[in-house]
Amino acid sequence: MNAVSDQVSLREQEPAGRLSVFHGKHTTLWVFLLFGWLISYADRTVTGPVIAWMISEKAGFIGDATNPATLGGLVGSMFFAGYMLTQYAGGRLGDRYGHREMLVLSLLWAGVMTLVSGMAAGLVAFVAARVLTGLGEGTFYSNDRTMIMNHTPSARRTLGLGVVLSGLSVGLTIGILATPYLIDWGGHLGLGGGAWRVPLWVLGVGSLLVALATYVFFTKNGDGRLRLGPPVLRLALYSLPTAVVIVGLFVLADKLSWSDWLTACAVGVLALVVILVVVRDVARSGRAKTLLNGNMWLIYVGFIAVMWNLWFFSFWSVEIVKETAHSSLIAAGLTASFNAGAGIIGFPLGGWIADRRARQGKGRKPLAVTCALVHTILACAFGLSIVGGKPSMLLLGLILFSSGLFFNALQPIIHDITGNLVPASERGSAFGIFNLIAEAGAVASPVVSGVLRDSTGSWAPGVFTAAGVMAVSVVLFACVRERVTSAAG
């Protein structure tokens, strides 16, 4: 594809009346969006350590299951089924009603449903609450990516995407490290087997506070007050039936004694149906040439591997380290946090290097392919390290940190490549389709890995599967025809 210039004014990157209010304040915008990522990822990460505690203590509605790892992975997959299925809807609603509105709505919705999750009395109620939480959080991604690209000077855009995404790593780290301590605190409060509820309550309140602060910022710096009524109604009309279908599948599987992996397959079929409906809708609207061309499909499918690896290591890394190194839950959490913590450096570093290349008139794709390849190699090394018996905690932490640097650097680069391939007015929809398809990896990864663990007695097959999936993405990303931009310094 011929190189094109990206040296355009900020106003040309966003529909009239939206951008000028943030001109010169884009770094402040980054901060608020970073906190949105932080609290959202702490919230969705907490499920893994909570389930690990239930398995360890044989408590709650997971600990006494016949195949607790498989069931725990299935619960995680149910959350991501909800998260996945509002990606496109969230992006389309943002393009229509405003990206500010959808960001605040996502945080409010997630805060309320996380509090409800901590009040659940049984497995089905907990799954329903987590599915609804995922449906609300699913609207954040596409609107966040669009806001940054539309309100950040092109010379700093990939850096902005990376800086904001570092909130993801902070949230992952908090979710992994804080959960055991919050559960212990719940024990000291006399909650006993219900101590797992405390992290959910704390994070629910945190999400509501971030939502309030973001609302105030957008109100003072936007085009007027935020109108949350119309989008929340549309989101509810979409989300509630979707939640009923997902939870209905779970209940039906329980009544008919389906195996957990078969239930996960049913959710996968539901996700495939939604993807097909979205593709049909885009094709009928005449936007297929922009949103569904060969380049975009390479990125959409390639990013499935990124989500697979992200949620394999985020969801199960604590349990993997705990089992293979025979360590305590807290020690395993500290070691596993090296992978999540690496993003604090990797996300902005990848964006900074990519922007430097762009200012030199070079493409970002070679850097993305390199990062994906190195992560694949290091994931294989992690698998080999746990095959031979009791591994060194130091070695596990070092591999997790090193792989995390390259893995996290990759993501803002791919996001910028994606955003540059579509007009500004279609970015919400583009990122919605992007994450709708990519989240298939997040839906499948926890439960597939749990099934592999229960059937083989080892976490190594799950690790090697994650590495193999990532190897495929290296090839797909290498085939993308990037739109090389020349960003003004």
Automatic annotation (TrEMBL):
First-listed, main subcellular location of the protein, grouped into a coarse class: membrane
Subcellular location: Cell membrane
Record domain Major facilitator superfamily (MFS) profile: where: 29-485
Membrane topology, from the record: Multi-pass membrane protein
Chain ranges passing through the membrane: 29-55, 67-86, 106-129, 159-178, 198-219, 231-252, 258-279, 291-316, 328-354, 366-387, 393-410, 431-452, 458-480
Cellular component aspect of the GO annotation: plasma membrane
Annotated GO MF terms: transmembrane transporter activity
PANTHER family attached to this UniProt entry: FI19708P1-RELATED, SOLUTE CARRIER FAMILY 17
Descriptive protein name: MFS transporter
Organism: Leekyejoonella antrihumi
